[in-house]
Amino acid sequence: MRKIRTAIIGGAGYTGGELARLLVFHPDVDLVSIHSNSQKGKKIWEVHPDLLGDSELEFTDEVQTEGIDAVFLGLPHGETQRFLELHPFPEKTVIIDLSTDFRDESNGFVYGLPEVNSEKIKTAKRIANPGCFATAIQLGLAPSIAKGWARENIHVTGITGSTGAGKKLAETSHFSYRNNNISVYKLFTHQHLKEIKQTMVQLNPDFDQQILFVPYRGNFPRGIWITSYFPFDGELDEAVNVYQEFYQKSPFTFVSTQDIDLKQVVNTNKCVIYLQKEVGQLVIYSAIDNLLKGASGQAVQNFNLAFGLDEKTGLNLKSIAF
Ligand SMILES: NC(=O)c1ccc[n+]([C@@H]2O[C@H](COP(=O)([O-])OP(=O)(O)OC[C@H]3O[C@@H](n4cnc5c(N)ncnc54)[C@H](OP(=O)(O)O)[C@@H]3O)[C@@H](O)[C@H]2O)c1
Fold first, then answer.
1. pLDDT number for residue 1
2. Domain Semialdehyde dehydrogenase NAD-binding, which positions (predicted)?
3. 172 assigned to some structural domain
4. Cα–Cα distance between 185 and 215 in angstroms, integer?
């Protein structure tokens, strides 16, 4: 079979680099173009040094729209829409966007959360990859919401690694600030709440609870840890069964029956979930790698679905474990 010709736009950034790492080793992919305005002419390994010995592809600032089967866009919010207006791709080209620009399904993109939308993704040519916090929160809550269990506001706290903020240096991603530190941002107003609500209503049209989300900046480079809870009348065993059944066919989302930790998922495309019931609350922990299940890994998972490949192709990754 001919390999699938793919391109990455925004290839010098964190999600672009992670896409390159996955696509260079993907057995069905020919990575033919990697775009960067700032790194034009450099070899891929000069920008992403861990790829030394793996690919000699050069960065280009030219955008190839013809002869490409799939394009991944790892551009900052607001830039993707502008970029696609300037560089329209043929309708048959599969576009997978990692920014927030098209996550509202009214934009004509399919929301790329495979655990909920895999059938739609299989026939989609335009896919909006979910946000990183949004992925971890939605996977933690989806079975509960589908069952109508959350009848009051849902409390959610989340902590993210510094790569979640992108490669460009900001005061809050500077080593001196981030190391040995913790801080809250966008209290109750995080931009991912909109897409989370969209999925929750899709799963349960009666869903109208608020998700009170407290996001934290963590002092580690990658990973997201979410804790969600709400009052729950049922038994813990019942909840675990419902969750395990909900994710039975999902090859990357697992409901653990023992305590979980972040390093279980760092460097993998997995989401692991663990449930507890205490003082009448169902407490749900969900953990992902923000750059993989929260971004580039999930984008490749969506790509696999859209091209009729096994969902796990190129995504059998090893966790760092410790
Ligand atoms: N980081 C995460 O964990 C994560 C998770 C989920 C989703 N996302 C989303 O994924 C997108 C990319 O995030 P990131 O973390 O990879 O950001 P990043 O590290 O800042 O990289 C963005 C890249 O986009 C390129 N770029 C900027 N403006 C451009 C333009 N106008 N035209 C073409 N290229 C442009 C830049 O490269 P050049 O200047 O070299 O062209 C830069 O390398 C964002 O929308 C982000 O919200 C990120």
1. 77
2. 5-124
3. yes
4. 6
Q: Which stretches within 54-100 are classed as H helix?
A: 79-86
Domain shared by 190 and 234, yes or no: yes
In-domain check, residue 14: yes
- Residue 247 maps to a domain: yes
Catalytic residue flag (residue 271): no
Residue 306 in contact with ligand 1 by CB distance below 6 A: no
Q: Is 99 in the pocket of ligand 1 (CB under 6 A)?
A: yes
Phi, psi of 196, rounded to the nearest 5 degrees: -65, -45
State how many domains the chain has: 2
Q: What is the pLDDT of residue 111?
A: 98
The per-residue pLDDT for 95 is 98
- The residue whose CB lies within 8 Å of the most ligand 1 atoms, and thus the one to mutate among 8, 22, 37, is 37
Task: Give, for ligand 1, the residue of 14, 84, 95 to mutate: max count of ligand atoms closer than 8 Å to Cβ.
Answer: 14
Percentage of the chain lying above the pLDDT 90 cut: 98
Summarised one tens digit per residue, pLDDT across range 4-40 is 999 999 999 999 999 999 999 999 999 999 999 999 9
Q: Which of ligand 1's atoms lies nearest the C-alpha of 291?
A: 3
Query: Cβ(37) to ligand 1 under 6 A?
Result: yes
pLDDT classification of 307: cutoffs 50, 70, 90: very high
At 210, the pLDDT band (50, 70, 90 cuts) reads very high
